[in-house]
Amino acid sequence: MINKALFFILLFTPLNAFSQNLLEIALEDKSSIVESTPFYRELNIDTFNTFYVPRHMKSLNFKDTTLLINLIKKSNLKLDTSKWNQTEFTKKIVVKEEGEFIKVKKALSLFPNLNEEEQKALKKEIRKYNNRTSSWRSFPIAVSRPVFSENGNFSLITIRNGNNGGEIILYEKRNGNWFLVGYVKRWAY
Fold first, then answer.
1. Burial category of 147 from C-beta neighbours within 10 Å (exposed 0-12, middle 13-18, buried 19 and up)
2. I want to staple 75 with a disulfide (CB 3.0 to 4.6 A). Which of 100, 147, 148, 180 is the partner?
3. With the CA atoms of 10, 107, 122 and 30 taken in that order, what torsion angle do they form, in degrees rounded to the nearest 10?
4. What's the rounded Cα separation, in Å, for the pair 87 and 3?
5. The pLDDT of residue 103
6. Phi, psi (5° rounding) for residue 114?
7. Binning pLDDT at 50, 70 and 90, where does residue 70 land?
8. By the 8 A CB rule, do 181 and 22 touch?
9. C-alpha–C-alpha distance, residues 145 and 18, integer Å
10. Is residue 16 predicted with pLDDT exceeding 70?
């Protein structure tokens, strides 16, 4: 019985960790409040012509346009549209609908390992979110489900920053860690 339980834990843990690590990297400097509905933006195949590599990463020299085209096609299929749930994020609050009121104490109880500075920042963001007018700017963010290449070493994620714009980002997995390669597309509202 214990062997079966251990087998299932080992079988399913890498699948969760595979995308979880990527989400943490992709959303590291974003709002702590995430919409439960995944965000998708239709991409044209020629979008990769606007590919932008951040200044500090110019040495990457990404040139595999076939891989990028295949990821874009796969992204447009919207293979996974299931809603996000709280267990998929370690430091983000998932809101089910626009205008949902977030209780500060309940939100803090979701993240018992936050240090004092992180708790203070989260409280501030929740209060700002709860007191916003209908013309919110940077939250909640909406995130697509990651789309992975066939070998699992590349991924596209689309992020909308409230009504402030968004970006479609390409990541690469090297030595078990995810790294930002560049922005396939960015937009502003």
1. buried
2. 147
3. 50
4. 25
5. 93
6. -70, 140
7. confident
8. no
9. 13
10. no
Q: Which residues contact 51 (CB under 8 A, 6 or more apart)?
A: 62, 68, 170, 182, 183, 184
Q: What does the pLDDT read at residue 17? A: 40
Strand partners, 180: 171
The more confident residue out of 183 and 99 is: 183
Q: What is the DSSP string of the chain?
A: -HHHHHHHHHHHHHHHHHHHHHHHHHTTTS-SEEESSPP-----GGGGGG-B--GGGGGG----HHHHHHHHHHHHTT---PPP-GGG-SS-EEESSTTPPPPHHHHHHH-TT--HHHHHHHHHHHHHHHT--SS-SS-SEEEPPPEE-TTSSEEEEEEEETTS-EEEEEEEEETTEEEEEEEEEEE--
What pTM did the predictor assign? 0.77
Which residue in 105, 109, 95, 99 sits closest to 130, CA to CA? 99
CA dihedral 19, 21, 27, 33 (to 10 degrees): 80
Tokens of 185: 């597309």
The residue type found at 182 is G
- Both tokens assigned to 66: 């076939």
104 vs 19: which has the higher pLDDT:
104
Which pLDDT value is given to residue 14?
A: 38
